[in-house]
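Hi V.,

You were right to ask for the full record rather than a summary. Here it is.
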Amino acid sequence: MRVLGVDPGLTRCGVGVVEGTAGRPLRMLGVGVVRTPADAEVGMRLVEIERGIDAWLDEHQPELVAVERVFSQHNVRTVMGTAQASAVAMLCASRRGIPVALHTPSEVKAAVTGSGRADKAQVGAMVTRLLRLDAPPKPADAADALALAICHIWRAPAMNRLQQAQAAARSSRIPTTAPVRKVPR
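Predicted structure:
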């Protein structure tokens, strides 16, 4: 499975491509950051992010795009920029028919480090180790993008089994309202 991980951000949008399957060694195919100038209009920044992500999709042809799920922060301005960049990544993938998966930061940290409370340095160190890199990818947004891709590759088989079990349970359920029969007296 080839996954493009996207750590959304308006100034720095981390991107990383990982190939592999759960239980096997993983391979990094590319890592980087799509940057936009902080003084540019938001609309133009989003266009630059779109161009950057489209270029990564063209070059690496991923089977899936894993995006960090935006969560509530105290700084509304930061959340808005992150959400906008996230939407651009989802749009770029969906326009091409590429499935998108969302993972929370704590899910990614737990998958990669074993702790949902790991800091950026721990995530970077584990990404370096798991992908057999010489040094942690810089900036941290790039390492986070790779962690998103790794998280999805490792979690996808379990998520698929869970979705199949839920679908099977839904299709085999007995109707909750049975027809009422009158009993003769």
